[in-house]
Each structure stands twice: as structure tokens, then as C-alpha cells.
Fold each of these.
Amino acid sequence: MAFFYDTHAHLDYDDYKSDFAAVLARAQAAGITKIISIATDLASSRRALALAEKHPLIYAAVGWHPSNAHEAPADIRPELRELARHPKAVAIGECGLDYYRLPSMSGAHGVAPSAEDEIYKQKQAEIFQQQLEVAVETGLNVIVHQRSSFDDLFAQIQPFAARTRGVFHCFGESVERLQKILGLGWLVSYTGIVTFKNGQSIRDAVAATPLGKFMLETDCPYLAPVPYRGKRCEPAFVKEISETVAQVKLCSLDELSAATCRTAREFFPKL
Ligand SMILES: [Zn+2]
């Protein structure tokens, strides 16, 4: 059986509280040999590291998600540096910019909506900048979350592009944007969206991404692949994702396993 890694899972979420051992057992039975639990803030980073200490197949990314940026202290760097030193902290993230739901859309009031949006975006940019700095300092790569923010995000990573590397997780953009990312020497990773009936544009991006330039992930508990679409997602479902990706890449599961796992071990040297 071909083995795979789940390079992006939110194992610290309450979604797995009741059956965590069974989730891990199903992952192992499906040939998933390493899982990176991705943090969304500092408390989540500590939970991910605790899981990594307890389970040999689990590793952690430590960081702060842009959608929670407004809750972040002014400077997350001192604590993040400490967490990043952990032997099983393999990356910084997830971090980035997310303009999908801006304050002006939620009906929250206080200041003029446009000013409120600017404050929200500014805080995201500050927290992202701090994480890029810690990535450079610690020699860890970054796991990038980008939603409705590509141009701003791409501009912000430019000064760091030669000093750290990143993976645009859950890639769902055009082939043109894919080429910009690969042009920096950065990577992308693909989720269960590749299996969706309406996922043809993602499959086109997969087809355009050479082996060695992408990794696989679930982003669980979100984005369960077909035939589990709409249900809680879990790391075992990398199997279904890998089957679709192998079909698109016209390669065997063994070739896909070798390429994606090697890419992950190079990108996350502590894995
Ligand atoms: Zn995520």
C-alpha cells in the first residue's frame, strides 16, 4: 500500500475529542504515516505540540491564523520563538491574510465600515509579518493561508522570499498564480476539493503543478473529499485525495507517494 502524509490537519479541534484514538487508527490503516497538526493561535500551538509529544506520527506547526489576528497580542514573536524550538515543531503557521469575511460584511458597527476593515487588515498584516520574521530566525518554513487576499499577500512575502520558503495550503487559485508561487521556489498543497464535481479548475492547477512542487493535505475537519463530502474530514481521507491526484497526474500511487513525501521531508526538515 502506498503511504502518504497529511501535511495540514487541525487535530487539536474539539471535533476529534470523542474519538481521537479511532481517528488516528483509521489514518494508520489508510497508510497515513505522518500528520502535521496546524495551529491557529498560541494556545492551539501548545495543544498541537502536546499531541506531537504523545503520538509518534503527529508533528506540529506553530502560529496564528489571520482570521484570529484581531485577538492576538501586539507581539507574538517571543512566545512563538520558544514554541518553534520544540523538536517536533516543523513549521510556522498557519499564517497569512484572509479578506473573505471583513468586519464591514458582518454588520458590526463602531467606526465607518471601511476604516474598520482597514484596521482588521492592518492587524493581519502585522501578525503575518511577525511570523515571517520568526520563520527566518528559526529556519522553519511557513504554511500560508490566503483567501481573497492574493495581491497583498504576494507583495508582503516578496522581501522574505529568498530567506524562507512557504507553502500555499489548500491551493485553489489560477494556473497563472500557481506559476508566480512556483517562480519564488515556494510550494502549494492540495485538499479534498480536487475530488469535488465542481473542482475542475483545481484539477487543472494540479495538472499544471510538477511532481516535487506540491504536497497533499486534508485541512480536516473541513473539506472532506468525495464520497465523504459534507461530513467531518479526517487524515485517513488523504487516501481519496491521493487517488484523484494520481489520476490527474497520470502517475501511480507509488510514484505520487514517493514524490509528495520527499517534497514534504525536504520542506519540513524536522519531519
Ligand atoms: Zn487550516
Amino acid sequence: MSSRCRVCDGTVHEFFDFGRQPLSDAFVPPDADLDQEFFFRLATGVCETCGMVQLMEEVPRERMFHEEYPYHSSGSAFMRTHFEELARQLLKTELTGDDPFVVELGCNDGIMLKVIAEAGVRHLGVEPSGGVADLAATKGIKVRKSFFEEATAAEIHAEEGHADVIYAANTLCHIPYIGSILSGVTSLLAPTGVFVFEDPYLGDILERTSFDQIYDEHFFFFSARSVQAMAARHGLELVDVERLGVHGGEVRYTLAHAGQRTPTVEVAALLAEERERKIADLATLRSFGARVLAIRDDLTALLRRLRDEGKRVVGYGATAKSATVTNLCGIGPDLVSFVCDTTPAKQGRLTPGSHLPVRESAEFANPYPDYALLFAWNHAEEIMAKEKEFTESGGRWILYVPEVRIV
Ligand SMILES: [Zn+2]
């Protein structure tokens, strides 16, 4: 199967098919008509021209980012620190001029902009999901409830002038119409400004076989090579990269207007590493697919064995990522009794497609299960420290990235 690249119109060759998948945040009310549940074919491909890894099929965006969008950035103490540190760094290095202006695309509940606002710096968050946008506004952050594209950029420019920093975390990779975003960025960005964005890194996904980073909301899987090629199409240049440990491995990319800044040595180093690892080669990507199938078979076999031995297994964290795992592996309530999660909007509902009941966190200890399947593995350290009592009382964690194991 092939399709056209969303960035450069080159030929995209499919390398893995996850099959029929639901929307990762479409938690099902218990009384819902299950026949009405929306499914699509989740499959990944790579562009032979620019090396961009992307989904083969697009889900209409209004189905994904809406009033009830349940993900809150501030939910994790670790992530709060991550964004606050970035905000302080930007204040120190990029926002020292006269009356600087910061725009954040997909500002979520305002975790980063709060620090900018408190420093008295002019800012604007652009956020299409109404619920989290309202939450940001209550923190004293100026928010515009909309998607960001060329026309939006023109309006913001007319009202506020050029932006010295445009920032986006876990947003850009969500957006199939990325060309319009970059055109908007190019026109809104001050001549000496920077566009900084961070998203899951293809190199980490391949290295860790973290296939659950692949779900409806993640349309693109960036690498330095594909970002450099994409930037060049819009008169922008990749001038810095920084590997981040968050969300199972991300890269923070910095773009500037072409010729304005000298790229750092880290850019050349990451590009060289990617060439060496051949991360955009079909053969490399197909062998990733083979490892995903091995994890699926191992995890399914383990859960069936535990069920047959009468052990109780509970899921930990009804994450967006868990939709890919449960639906790819066919994990239903017969294998995992329920999933506990701290998000009230998910509690009392069923997980999308796999229909595992979601219960509040307190249920985890009531009583502790024999095994906990850790869907929120990117927060493993934070969670395992918090749930020390579980392991002390004999409970065990099941992890499945980069391979299935019990700890
Ligand atoms: Zn392409």
C-alpha cells in the first residue's frame, strides 16, 4: 500500500498495519451503543523522498480535539517541572529584547505559559480543545480557542506583531495539515525569532520498540532528517536539536529563518547518527514491525497464562497509548479486570475498543492485584515510587517496552 506524503507529496510506503483501532481518547460511557463506536485503520508508512514517517490514514481532527479532550499537561509533577524549566530558559535566552512576544500552539492547560505570564511577558496560547483552554484562562493566561493555521497566524500578527518565540509541545506531530502550520509560523515569526517544538522521536520509538507511541493523535514521527527537509520547504532551517527523556523519548527541535543562525554541532551529530542507523529505511522500519508482533504475542501469552493460573491483573493508567496496545493485542476484561486512572472524565467509562472498565486510582489498592500492567510506562519511575506498597506486599509490574517482562 502507498499514499502521498503530507509534507512533500512524495510516495509513502506502508511498513506496519496495527489493524482496526478506535480513537485513543474516545472512552465509552457504560450505557453507550457499542455499534456506534468509531474505528479506523491505523497503519504507518515512510516517505521515500523526505523520510517522514506518518500515518497512512487521517482521522478528522474535530473527532479528536474537542470540548472534552481529557489530557491535562499539568497532571504529572515531572512534566510540570519540565515545562517550567523550558519557560525559564526561554525567558533568559530568547526573550530579553524590548517587549517580547511568545505564542504557544496547543497550550493545553497553560503549564508553560503560566511562567511566561508571571514574568509579565506578552503571550498568547492557541488551543482548539475548549475544556483545557478554559483551564489555561483561569490561570491568567491569554488564550485563543482555535486551531492554528495560516489565516490564524495572519490575525495574530495583525493584533500583536511578530512573535519572538513560537513554541509547541506534543502538538505539531498531531497535525496532518502541517504545511499550513509552518506557513503560518514563517509569517508570524520575527526575523531573529525561533520556532521551538518537541515531539516523540522516531529514533527512540525504533530503539525502544515503543509502538504504543503510534495512535490516532500522533500523525507524524519526526527525525532530524525529516524536520530539516520540512523546514527547508518553508524558508526555515533546523538550527538546534536536544534529546529529551520525557514521554518515552522526544527531541526538542529549534527552527529559525534560513541563514539567521548557525546550526549547532548537535544537529550534524544527530543527522549523522540517523544515517548510520538507517532509521528511515524500509528494511529498518519493517524489522521494527516484526518486533512489535513479537511483543504482541509475548504479552498475550503472558496474560492468558496468568488468567489460567487465577491471577488478577489490573491496568495502570488509561493512557492514549494503551488503546494501541489493548486493541492490537486483543486485551479485554477477561485478561485485565480494570484500568485505574486519576482522570475523573475517564472513570466509570470503558477504554476505547477494548472496553476495559476505568476506575479511580484508589481502587488499585482495594485490594492490590497480583500484577499491574503499566500502560503509563513513560512515568514508570514516578509511579513505582508512589506505589511502593504494592510491590512490598508482593505485587509485580508487567512492562512491555522494549520487551515483555515482569519486575
Ligand atoms: Zn515526504
